[in-house]
Structures are given as C-alpha cells and as structure tokens.
Write a structure and sequence with these properties.
Blueprint (H helix, E strand, L loop, with lengths): L10 H4 L5 E5 L31 H11 L5 E5 L9 H10 L4 E5 L4 H8 L5 E5 L4 H8 L4 H15 L4 E8 L7 H11 L3 E6 L5 H13 L18 H15 L5 E3 L9 H6 L12 H4 E4 L5 E2 L17 H5 L2 H11 L24
Parallel strand pairs: 1-2, 1-8, 2-3, 3-4, 4-5, 5-6, 6-7
Antiparallel strand pairs: 8-9
Helix pairs in contact: 2-3, 4-6
Length: 356
C-alpha cells in the first residue's frame, strides 16, 4: 500500500506498523450507561446476548502470537472484570513481556485487587460525576460507592499503581465535575481524561448506512450511537470544561482527544455535520482490535464488519491483509461518515498507554 494519506502527515505516521492491540475479552457488561452504544437504551448488544466468546485456551494462543509483535495491550469490554480468568490471561501477557493497561467501569475492582496486582501499567476507571450523577448516568444505583471502595483497596494494597479516570462529557454532568475533582484529589489520581461524546447525527447515520452497503457490510449498529443536542449546548460545554481546567490546575486534566482544544467542543456538538479536523484517523495504521468472538476491526466503538478472525488467520496476515488495506484507503479518503464524531480521529496515541 502506498504511504499517502490526506492531511500532509509525516511519512512515519503513514507507515503501517502494529503498535497497539485492544482485546475485548467479553461484550457482557453489568451497567447500562445512557450514552453507551453497546449497552445503553439503544445499544446493539441487547440483540447479541448469546454471541460466542472465546475461552481462556484460545486467548492464550492469541497472546502467544502477539508476543513477537510486541504491541501495547489494552484490555477492555464490555466489562473485563466479569471474566473469571482475567488474571490468568493477563499474567500470561506479562510473562510474555507485553505491557498492558485495563479499562473498567470499576464496580468489581474491590474483589479483584489481588489478582490484578502488578499486571497493568495503567488502570482506567470510568467515572462521570459525583455519586448521584454517576449512578444516574450509569443506570445502576450504588455504583459510585462500589468504585470508591475498589480504588481505596487498590491504594492500600499497591499504592504505586497508576490510576486514571475517564469522564464522558454529558448534559447530566455539565457544571458538576468540580464535585468529582474533590474525590480525585483524595484518591491521588494520576490522570483525568475528559472525552467528548461519540455520536452520529441523523444525516451521518444515513450516510454511514449507505457507506456500509457500498462496502458490502451487512451489519449496521450505527443507530446505537444516534444523538442530538440542543442549540448552544457545545458552547456551554466548552465554557464548562475551560472553567474546570482553570479551577483545578493541580490535576492532570485534559481532553482524551489529545489534539483537540476545549473551544473545539463548540462545533463538535453544535455543528455535527461539519468536518472540523483536516486529518484522517491514524488508528488503522497502528492499532488492531480483537473482539471477544475472534473477529477484528480497527474501530473500537462504531465497528461494523470484520477484517478477519484470529481463529482463521494470523494477526499480521489480518493487519496487513486486503480488507485492512481497503479500509485504510477509505479512511484516508474520509470515506467513513462515522469518523466525524469519533474521538479516536483526534488522538495521536493509539492505545491507553498514559502518554500525553
């Protein structure tokens, strides 16, 4: 494949090199977050409850095949702490010399602390506000209290573990995140990432459906990510984030979309059809996602279709294969309408590795 991509990016950025792998051990989750395209009210997972998931023995084989490639590994889901053999699998990754991080909703952390000790460079915990706001957004009462118990246990058992909080910017938590900051100070969080909501407008959903058809992809979960925002919402959110950053300069507080500035939150929400970033997403050139059934994709959220299955093909064969090549060409030409409001298009780091 020719190393040419829109936006005039450096040649090194355009080179196909596997640097990161996200591993979705399960699609199951114990929460029903309002904004989630997986398990939210419109989430596509509600129709996939009985989907096949690989067992530990198959995942161990995947790990062995990843070892020579040395990618950075991120474990996520669904909720990975629901997997009873998570610790065994991650121990094997560590024995293979693979660095890894964990993304979790944190509800089950307290009971898993011993099995997770020393395995992860970072543990990323989703928290969307003070207790009543977080529980409202996450759809289950008592989740904040359980997360706090888990964080305190981690600090007691292995105090040097790097912890980060990931917060999705939502109408429910606008103006309330200062109350969460008090907890983060108390817990000694090393990082706080604010993420603009990933979504599709109605126009983008229609275009995305047409794009999937043109690519011969039958699966279409785009409606799970449909969202609309009131006029002026983006400006209010931008002002709220700027105040939060000014009020808490001691916290490592930043947008998870690391090339985005707070003022760009205004067009992100208020002008959803606008293409406000001239560069294409770089993740397909550097990251592969392996899903719980062995299928693969470049995208983590709006991820219809598959590049191939690790049950049938080698990892490098998939990453360098014709389906991957076709997808990269489409992305480089801004072919996928779902990219416009995805935070990964704004990220220059393709894993949850704690890099600034």
């Amino acid at each position: 494949m020719a190393d040419t991509v829109s936006g005039g990016e450096p040649e090194e950025e355009n080179r196909v090199k596997l640097q990161a792998v996200t591993i979705q051990l399960t699609r199951r989750c114990n929460l029903h977050c309002r904004m989630c395209g997986q398990w939210g009210e419109k989430g596509y997972q509600h129709s996939c409850r009985d989907q096949y998931e690989m067992d530990l023995s198959r995942w161990l084989l995947v790990a062995d095949r990843l070892a020579p490639l040395k990618p950075y590994i991120t474990i996520w889901g669904g909720e990975p702490l629901l997997v009873p053999w998570l610790g065994d699998f991650c121990c094997h990754l560590a024995e293979l010399g693979l660095q890894q991080s964990l993304v979790t909703n944190g509800v089950l952390l307290k009971g898993c602390v011993h099995s997770l000790k020393g395995l992860f460079e970072w543990i990323y915990i989703s928290l969307d506000g003070p207790p009543e706001i977080h529980d409202l957004i996450r759809g289950v009462n008592g989740t904040f209290a359980r997360i706090e118990d888990g964080i305190q246990r981690i600090r007691q058992e292995f105090p040097h573990q790097k912890l980060a909080v990931m917060t999705t910017l939502l109408p429910e938590n606008m103006g309330r995140l200062g109350e969460l900051a008090v907890y983060l100070r108390k817990w000694g969080m090393q990082d706080w990432l604010l993420s603009p909501q990933i979504f599709l407008s109605r126009e983008q959903l229609q275009l995305y459906s047409e794009w999937l058809s043109s690519c011969g992809i039958r699966e279409n979960t785009g409606a799970s990510w449909l969202a609309e925002f009131s006029c002026g919402y983006g400006g209010e959110m931008a002002e709220s984030v700027e105040r939060l950053m000014a009020d808490y300069p001691d916290l490592r507080l930043r947008l998870s979309a690391d090339s985005m500035q707070s003022e760009q939150l205004l067009p992100w929400y208020d002008d959803p059809e606008a293409d406000i970033l001239p560069l294409s997403c770089r993740a397909p050139w550097h990251r592969l996602s392996i899903r719980s059934d062995g299928s693969t994709s470049f995208c983590l959220d709006v991820s219809d279709g598959s590049l191939g299955s690790v049950l049938e093909k080698g990892i490098e064969e998939i990453f360098q294969g014709p389906e991957a090549d076709r997808f990269r060409k489409e992305i480089g030409l801004a072919g996928n309408p779902a990219c416009k409001r995805c935070v990964w298009r704004w990220r220059r780091d393709y894993s949850y590795s704690g890099k600034a």
